[in-house]
Amino acid sequence: METDNEVEVWHAMRATYRRELDAVHLLEKESLGCFVPMQYKVSIRKGKKVRTLVPVIRNLVFAYTELEEITNYYNLSIF
C-alpha cells in the first residue's frame, strides 16, 4: 500500500527574485515534471508595441513529484 509520501502530486514552490525559469531548468535537469503558467503581455517601449512571454503568477513553479523528493530542493538558493 502506498503512503502519502510515495504518491506523485503537484507541489507549488516559490522561486525567489523572479527566477522561475532558472528553477524550471534545475528541476528538468533532475528529471522532475514542472510547469510555469505563461502568457503574452503587450507593452509599449520606445513608442512600439512589444510582446513578451511572462509568467502568469510571479515567483511560482509547479513541480510534479513525491513529497520526499521535492523536500530536497527547498534549501536551494532559488527556492
Notable features of this structure?
18% helix; 5 strands; 2 helices; three-stranded antiparallel β-sheet; alpha+beta; 79 residues
Describe this structure in words.
The chain is of the alpha+beta class. The chain contains 2 helices and 5 strands; from the N terminus they run E-H-E-E-E-E-H. The protein has helices at residues 20-29, 67-70, and strands at residues 9-14, 33-35, 38-45, 48-55, 60-65. The strands form 2 sheets. A 3-stranded antiparallel sheet has the order 1-5-2. Strands 3-4 form a two-stranded antiparallel sheet. The chain is elongated and about 55 Å long. The relative contact order is 0.33. The mean pLDDT is 87.
**How many H/I helical runs?**
2
List the strand order in the largest sheet: 1-5-2
Percent strand: 35-45%
Summing up helix and strand content along with how strands pair, one would put the structural category as alpha+beta
- From the N-terminal CA to the C-terminal CA, the straight-line distance is 32 Å
Helices, strands, pairings?
Elements (H helix, E strand, L loop, with lengths): L8 E6 L5 H10 L3 E3 L2 E8 L2 E8 L4 E6 L1 H4 L9
Antiparallel strand pairs: 1-5, 2-5, 3-4
Write a brief structural summary.
18% of the residues lie in helices and 39% in strands.
